[in-house]
Amino acid sequence: MKPFKPTTVIFRENALEYPLGKKLYESFKEEEKIKIHIVAPRGPFPLENNVSFRKKFIRAKKTLIVSVRSLGKFQSCKPSAHYQLPLVTGCPAHCHYCYLSTNLGKNPYIKIYVNLEEILDKAEKYIEKRKPEVTIFEGSATSDPLPVERWTGSLARCIEFFAGEELGHFRFVTKFTDIESLLNLKHRGRTEFRFSLNSNYAINKFEPTTPLLEERIKAASKVFQASYPLGFLIAPIFIYDGWQDEYKDLIRKLKESLDNKGKRISFELITHRFTRRAKEIIEKIYPRTELPMNEETRQFKYGQFGYGKYVYPEEIRQEIEDFMRKTINEYFPEAEIKYFV
Ligand code: SF4
After folding, report:
1. Against a cut of 0.90, is the pTM above it?
2. Residue 262 pLDDT > 80, yes or no?
3. Is any ligand 1 atom within 6 A of the Cβ of residue 146?
4. The domain that contains 264 carries what CATH number?
5. How far apart are the first and last CA of the chain?
6. How many angstroms separate the CA atoms of 341 and 339, rounded?
7. Which residues form the domain of 205?
8. Which of 87, 98, 198, 212 to mutate to test the pocket of ligand 1 (most atoms within 8 A of CB)?
């Protein structure tokens, strides 16, 4: 699939004082068909306001904001890591179920933070504070950072930074496949590279504008050969006619493409869930979606952040868990299943 290219890039003036801000400005200036704006650090964006919710949403997915991240406390990031590492917010893809649609509001711009060295300095302080424990940072808590990597190089910088940190580990997850620039970096096993996978049915129906399963598996195999610790997030898992065959097929294909002798692979498994607010937003943005969101077939459950969500009923979740654990154990007996939710 074609690499992501924004239609509009908005620079906060103060971002241009940083080397990454300058580099991005020089690169985007050379590109055809990209509108560039420079705005004050807290000024409004020069975008037409009188457009529908849906149009604003779609426009925001093609708009990059280059800015300076204010450095308060890092957010915690359970169960994936100790802290979020803020590199990018947002993602150009249109997965119907994406949690960012609810979290980022009607304007889910893709924001790139140029004060990367300050962010890494701050990470260093967290590592120091938790010594002698290892501190894990998650680079994709509010984004898929890979689609903009060819412009920013931020993941590459982080991977090399953590290679030099004995007590700091980095992890991120992606559905994208432009991984070539990361393959030859010195990572010293301190970055866990994870791919988000799903069955063909789920990818075709609910993950438009993302690479196919086969492309993701091919990219994962290259990452594995580059000796990165490798993980797979299978999410969200759906129940539909033939779901067991397709999820089994996914694990089987993974096994065929990875020679994992002696190397650890991890899995994180998440079943589909939705909130009432997410459902309202999804129906506005993707009015023809076939995403299963019938509350009557679900169980209402309060999550760790205090709001309720609709999950599969307990007996179905148990069935999914038993099936996924059994299948993964069959093909990858040494793999670690970090969690199932
Ligand atoms: Fe959301 Fe990930 Fe899909 Fe991007 S790729 S829209 S972050 S689910």
Report:
1. yes
2. no
3. no
4. 3.80.30.30
5. 31
6. 7
7. 198-272+312-341
8. 98
